[in-house]
Each structure stands twice: as C-alpha cells, then as structure tokens.
C-alpha cells in the first residue's frame, strides 16, 4: 500500500499522549481500545477531528469562518492525509417540540408527497398541506405542536365570588381600576354581583371567550370596544407569534396554565382536512404513528401503480431504522425524548443514506444502550459505512464490536499519566494474545453470582401503563443489588426512571448527563474538596480563604479567573487564547506566594487525585479523595473542569460523591458506559460496597458481567415497543435460565 492509504500522525502530545506516532489505514474500520483515560479520545477527537475541522475551515473566507465552529491546532508535529471528518456522537438530537423522528430522518416529506398525490379526498395541491409545520396543514388551535397551554380555571377564577368582589384572579384583572376589569364590569354582559358559580352557560362562555363589540365606561368616559373573554385575552397577551412564548410569559403562566394535549387535534398536530384525507383507510397520522416495524409491513399494502416508487423509498429508509434496532420507535416520536444511544443510531442511519464517499466517520461507543442481541445490527451498519468507501474510526469497549475491526489500536497501559502510549496495533486475534489489559480481559467472563443476598423486603411501585408498559409494577428487593435488563425499547427506563423513581422521590438517579456546562467548576469544587483545601491554605498563611478561589478574591484580574481570554479580531475568527498573565492558572499571581507544604494553589490544582492522596493528611480531604480513587478516576487532576469529562466519567464522579450515603435507593443507568473490560469488576465492587453500606441499588444494564453479578434480576421484554413492556422474570440470576422468551437468558449462560 502506498502511504496515502494511511492517516499518519507524528509525535502527538495532546492531553496525556506521549509523542504518539501512528498510521491508521484509510477505508477500513479501525477500533480504538484501552482503559478510560488512556488517550483514545485525545487521538480521535482532539487530534484527528480537530485538525480535519481546522483544515476544512481554512478553505473558507475569513468572513465565513466567523460563523463556523472554532478548532485549535492539535499539539502534534505532523498530521497527513486527513479527509473530512464527521463525528456521530451521543449528544441528544434535541430540537424543539416540532422536531420528530419523521422530520429529522426525512421520511415525513415522502409521506407528504404520497398523500398530496394519492390521498382521498384530495387536499391542497402542494405537499406542504400535509405538514404540521405549515399553516395549511397544522391544527389551528395548537399550531401543529399537539399540545397547548390550557388555562387552569380553578386558579384563574374564584367561583364563590362575584365579578365585583374580584372573582377573576388573572394578572390584569386584580386592581379595581384596571382596563380589563372595567371593561368586564361595564360591558353590561354580566350581573356583577352574582357569584360566578351561578353563571349560566351563556354568561360563562362570554366570560371566558366572548368576543363582541360593547359600549363600556372607562374612567367615566364611554368607549366602544371589542370585549374579549378572559381566556382569550390570556392567550393573546402571553403568546407571541405562533405559539411561542417569552420566558417572562412562561413564568406568569406557570401559575395559571398548564401544558396539556391539544383538545382540538388530540396531539395529532394536523388539521381536520389533512386527517380526513386517506389512502387504504389510513391518514398520514395513522401511518406515521405506527411502530416502525409494523409500518414497514403495512406499507406493502400501498405498493400499487404510481405509488410504488415513493413507497419503496419510504420502506428503504424505515428499513434502515429497523435494521439498526430502532424498530420500537414511531415517526411521531419527538426527538427531544430520544436517549443518547438512540440519537446516535438515528444519526448513523442518516449518514448511511448519503452517497458521499471518502469521508472519515468517528463514533464514540456506538454500542451504548444496545442489548447483546442487537450488537450485530450495529456491526452491519459500521461495515456498510466502510463499504461505501469511508474510513470508520470507533472508540469501543464492547468485545462484539472490537471483534469485527479491520484494525485495532490499543492505548495504555493505564489512565492519565500512566497511559498515553500505543500498546498494540493489529488484528483482533493478535490483541487476544498480546500483553495488554484489553487482551487479557476480553477473554474473561465473570461467573453467575452463586451466593446472592437474600431478598426479604420489597419496595413496590404502583402498576403503570405509561408508554409501552403492560400494567406492570417494579418490585425491588430492599438492600440488594438488582439489575433491570431487556432489549432496547422494552421499557426499562420508563418503568425505573419515569414510574418508580417518581413515586420514590428519595431515590437518586445517577446517570450520564453532564455535570455542569460551565468551565468554572472542577472535580475539587464538585466533590467539596476545594472548600477544605482553601481552609488549609488560609490557615497555613493566616489570610482569608476567599483568596484561594479563582471564582472570588483570588481571580487573575486579566481573565477574571477563566484562564483564557477571547481575542476579538474583527477581520479574523474569534479565538480563545491562554491568558498571558496567569498562563491558564486562573489565579492572581500574588496568590501564588502563599504556599502549603511548599506548593502554591496552582501547583495543587494541577495535581492528579492520585498525587493529592499522598500530599494531603487532612482526614476530610483524604476520605473524599479516596471516594474518587475508588471509582477509578484517580487520573483526573483536582482542577480539571467538569465540562471536559465524558458521560461515563461524570457518572462515576457522581457515584463518588454519593458513596458514603446510607439507606438510599440508587438508580444507575448503564454505569459501564465508557468503561474498559478491566474496569467492570471495579464498578461491580463499587455497587456491592454501596449495598453493604445499607443502600438499595438498581442498575439498568446490557453488560452481561454486571447482570451475572447481581443479587436479583428483573428482565423486561420480550421485545421493544408494543411487543415489550412486560416483566418476563424476576428473581435470582440463575433462575432466568429456563425463561424461553427471554433474550437476556440466551446471553448469560
Ligand atoms: P479516553 O478517551 O481513553 O478515555 P482521553 O483521551 O479522554 O481518554 O483522556 C486522556 C487523558 O487526558 C485523561 O487523563 C484525561 O483526564 C485527560 N484529558 C482529556 N481531556 C482533557 C482536557 N480538555 N483538559 C485536560 N485534560 C484532559
Ligand atoms: P428501554 O429503557 O428499555 O430502552 P424505554 O423505556 O426507553 O425502553 O422505552 C419503552 C417504550 O416507550 C418504547 O416504545 C419507547 O419508544 C417508548 N417511549 C419511551 N420514552 C418515550 C417518550 N418520552 N414518549 C413516547 N414514548 C416513549
Ligand atoms: Zn392541535
Ligand atoms: Zn489570567
């Protein structure tokens, strides 16, 4: 192979990388392995994706660059043969209330064409008429959102009072001389002294939504005005254009109104004319609201005559979503409610259908949220991306994904300063026999827990039918380690996080949502260590402890404790550069004269947790450091900001903070995310520690080692969506063996 068949990096020093040089074959599937913190992301994201983005940006004019994301030059000597890089990450798709799976996957527009051409009766002659985002297609009451604010009448009106006594409680009606109140009282429409509860239907309608010309007396002067009912007025004042509301309006409304399913369209978003137009007895909502695997079959009935080619298009796109394991979703599902793993799979499918080649796709742990049964579907997709002529780079811990790599690059040997080197490159078979942690642990499997803690007392939620649940309740044994398993979409998060934890508000959900979006909190402030360190510095130097905070008196005056300053060059892109005064240290230089055991505060903040354990003797600090060390994050530095932590690292830091609590119910959502096979025993030990301290731990997991180690397993299924939502088995792990319907059982033994 000639050299342009490789991406080549020479002497990479990003984060913890130790002058790493490597070649990555192009048009192949390369998997990066290694313990978390070893440097995988530093290569893939901080070097390759950064540099590809930067090079792409530099092809634009400086004016255009103002509007593009900012990239910094990676700390490496040379980088060759990059192609445009596309990151398919697990950031939730987000969007707004108008964004649904059907719009984001470009499938809804195909349905619009189908109905505008073949729907009966015909409606509109543009396909826009079948869009709930278009005035022609949207429900007029909710503007196509499917929900709207509904006035809470019992909060808006005191029914026992008359209008003259102040029955209307809404803003604008509560002072005697207000325009709105005077309009009502002098309109002649009401008996002002009759309690509202005695109003007849006409009076009530007028009060709420009346809309007529009346003569009124305002400050003694007669006017002819449009009388407007209070409900009508409330909506008009609080809504700006097309259903959007300002923040201040939202605050006003919170007390008087609530979001509820739209009474006109019942959440279907379309107007009556759109919904009346049908093909084979079904309208656009009926079809897009079907679960995807059912929709795929249903569309077979639509293949006739001229419809066939559009239907084929629809089936091919829906088929891709089904193939990746999203068969349980419907096109009407709002994108804001998709999990990180689901979002990533939707994005992957979108890229699959584009015909660009020669790109570099980068995926971070795409197996997240997938049951072992479905990992092969993901594998097919990764290989398809590669076979379309692209380079695919994947950071993964799942042995079943690592197995299919053309090339493996293993980083290590450990995390942080103990990592940052390449420990192996080559095939999967070679990795298994290599002297690396990855190789060693890939072959290891934990046995089924043969001495589970006995279950005697249970905490039980009430029966629920939320989403796909089939009238089931969650029964958790108190003081045990329980795993909830089942294929994606079977109902695990619905039952555990949306039903159980809402009924037990004292339960603590520890998930992977980022801790803080701002760059001012770090592992030391979050865990409470910082406050103790400041006290020690203050005591040793006999000064105020505020001096040792870069968010307070100790801040570098140049950058206000940010460590960076923004360069605003009108003719070039804005960029963040290191503060020239504190050089990123964030502290006022005069604070650096104060020392603790010979070190200044910046030197202390740069220590790793591991180094800090040796440095501090203070009991409070030591026990907090020990908790962080315990969850395997000893490679973090005290000052590392929370916004640089991955989802998995954030989750483990949250666990560290809670580690010393007793008598709680903890809910962990896929705690093995981001964890190397060698760290899995560690997280199992942490869970068991929590249980030994008297806590109840419920873990949603796909990792079979974690399942085997549990005291109790609750398996949901049998499948996703409408074919799931039942509990197939609850009991000790060994007992699941004979449950024929359980997919989980097939992977445990
Ligand atoms: P992996 O992807 O293998 O989990 P990373 O490349 O994310 O590892 O991290 C390697 C090391 O670099 C870790 O010690 C990590 O804490 C550190 N690190 C990562 N990002 C940053 C950053 N933005 N600032 C400082 N340290 C970082
Ligand atoms: P799991 O956690 O096992 O992957 P979920 O509880 O997320 O499963 O999903 C169970 C079912 O409920 C699926 O059919 C899913 O599409 C549906 N569902 C989950 N969340 C929502 C939501 N916010 N709105 C509508 N349906 C949802
Ligand atoms: Zn509506
Ligand atoms: Zn500064």
Gist of the model:
This protein has 28 helices and 23 strands.
Task: Explain what the structure shows.
It is globular, with a radius of gyration of 30 Å. It has a 6-stranded mixed β-sheet with strand order 5-10-11-3-12-13, sandwiched between helices. The chain is an alpha/beta fold and 749 residues long. Helix 15 links the parallel strand 10 and strand 11. The mean pLDDT is 91. It folds into 5 domains: 6-91 and 338-442, Rossmann fold, CATH 3.40.50.300; 101-146 and 264-336, Up-down Bundle (ABC transporter ATPase like fold), CATH 1.20.1580.10; 148-261, Orthogonal Bundle (Helicase, Ruva Protein, domain 3); 458-515 and 648-748, 3-Layer(aba) Sandwich (Rossmann fold); 523-644, ABC transporter ATPase like fold, CATH 1.20.1580. Helix content is 33%, strand content 16%. The longest helix has 19 residues, at 308-326. It has 28 helices and 23 strands. Bound molecules: adenosine-5'-diphosphate (2 copies) and zinc ion (2 copies). One zinc ion is lined by residues 139, 141-142, 146, 262, 264-265.
